[in-house]
Amino acid sequence: MDFPTIGAPDAGDTAWMLISAALVLLMTPGLAFFYGGMVRAKNVLNMIMMSIGAMGVVGVLWVLYGYSMAFGEDKGGLVGDPFQFFGLSGLFGGSYLANAGTGAPAAIPLVGTIPATVFVAFQAMFAVITVALISGAVADRLRFGPWLLFAGLWATIVYFPVAHWVFSFDGVTAEHGGWIANKLKAIDFAGGTAVHINAGIAGLVLALVLGKRRGWPGTPFRPHNLPFVMLGAALLWFGWFGFNAGSAVGSNGVAGATFVTTFVATAAAMLAWLFVERIRDGHATTLGAASGIVAGLVAITPSCSSVNVVGALAIGAAAGVLCALAVGLKYRFGFDDSLDVVGVHLVGGIVGTLMVGLVATKEAPAAVEGLFYGGGFDQLWRQAVGAGAVLLYSLVATTVVALIVKYTIGLRASGEAESRGLDDTEHAENAYDFVALGGGTAGSAFSSAPVRTTVMEA
Questions:
Q1: Is the residue at 11 inside a domain?
Q2: Which of 128, 130, 219, 314 has the least C-beta neighbours within 10 A?
Q3: Start and end of every Ammonium transporter AmtB-like domain (predicted)?
């Protein structure tokens, strides 16, 4: 079969996918608020700019060669042909509208039942937010210019090939797709491996290459704006319905089922995180609620098409508990993951990916059975291999990319820049005019409590 196929798109599917693409785009500004509120006041603009900068860099690379690397014809089992759709060649043209005079239907390049350009846009948003997620691990100390270079190199070397492995199915955009989707047959409906495990381990590697913030962990780093954090979590939850239900690539029953499982798993994870806080620390916090929301969204992402409501509740509860406990690992092992990318995205992605092998049920759209539903270990080992392969590849490739940037243009801000704040030194701006308000220097009022009050720094 020749790709792309030419035909008339389905109006309902196209409308839903345009909405879904816009919802996923909204997630990156939501992430910017979520991360921006968690840092000190003197670094909030820099944190927001790292997410917004990723939108620019990845957006340009995606239409040049990223889409082709992800969804072009498989080359050597590693990556799609980067020249097949270079500059989106072959995806524009044809009869865009039905000819009312002749009755001839529209005839344009399609992916399934939707215009190929809509699929390109939808998948572009996945690429953008995956890169942006990494930035939370290196808050307060990574220079903006090197971040943009890292983002472009990492998207090219890590994300585009992994997206090909996970998201490129045979006979959809090319005759042969990626090995995880088609040969291993691991289930990752919307990106537990390609997005969250991938970004989570990359965040850990980049944090280790950069080194700890000056004064960490002895110096407390308190979130400067918890309403920002909750606003970001709310925007993420809202946009995530496009992320998961949109991955049905149509307005259909799969979208409906994944919408429901996404909602209930997230609700369960939030409650589970708050329960852990209440038992461990004696109080439930706003930061904990926001973090629980994100943990649940992460964990249900790979599994939303393969579980029923009971399975979704189990995945959400497990993610809420395990991620709430995992965010404290950085103090035990001494890695400075500033905003808990490892504890939430890496751990949550692993939980959701592996639990497909436990609680998947044939009544769900994916129609497979996990261990607890009589399916044995067959799906579980597939999930484990898929998660492990992405984790290992991302670990090695991210190390290479980070070291290239470090030893060419440098990664880390100077000690003086960290002290003054990256908003001032990197962007010549400040988020808040404390002098006009009668305060002191930017950030001085926000430096007396831990960054995550729900975790004991022992």
A1: yes
A2: 219
A3: 15-432
- Write the DSSP symbol of residue 104: B
- In 44-159, which ranges are continuous DSSP H helix? 44-61, 67-71, 116-134, 144-154
Q: CB burial class (10 A; 0-12, 13-18, 19+) of residue 218? A: exposed
Token readout for 331 is 């103090």
Q: Are 26 and 234 spatial neighbours (Cβ–Cβ below 8 Å)?
A: no
How many structural domains is the chain composed of?
Answer: 1
Euclidean distance between CA atoms 156 and 150, whole angstroms: 10
- Residue in 68, 23, 351 with CA at minimum distance from that of residue 193: 351
CA distances in angstroms from 39 to 26, 44, 324, 451, listed in the order given: 21, 6, 19, 8
Strands 79-80 and 108-111, by their bridges, are unpaired
Residues 6 or more apart whose Cβ sits within 8 Å of residue 44:
36, 37, 224, 225, 228, 423, 431
Are 41 and 446 a contacting pair, CB within 8 Å?
Answer: yes
Instruction: Note the pLDDT tens digit of each residue in 86-129.
Output: 999 999 999 998 876 677 889 999 999 999 999 999 999 999 99
Q: State the angle between helix axes of 226-244 and 11-38 in degrees (0 to 180), rounded to the nearest 10.
A: 160
Q: What is the pTM of this model?
A: 0.93
227 within a domain of the structure (yes/no) = yes
Backbone angles phi, psi at 170, to 5 degrees: -55, 135
CATH number reported for the structural domain that contains residue 120 in this entry: 1.10.3430.10
Contact 400/209 with Cβ under 8 angstroms? Answer: no
Q: What is the pLDDT of residues 168-206, one digit of tens each?
A: 999 999 999 999 999 999 999 999 999 999 999 999 999
Give the neighbor-by-neighbor strand order of the sheet with 5-7.
Answer: 5-7, 108-111, 114-115
User: What's at 233, amino acid-wise?
Assistant: A
Range of the domain at 41: 5-98+108-415
Whether the CB-CB separation of 244 and 172 falls below 8 Å is answered with: no
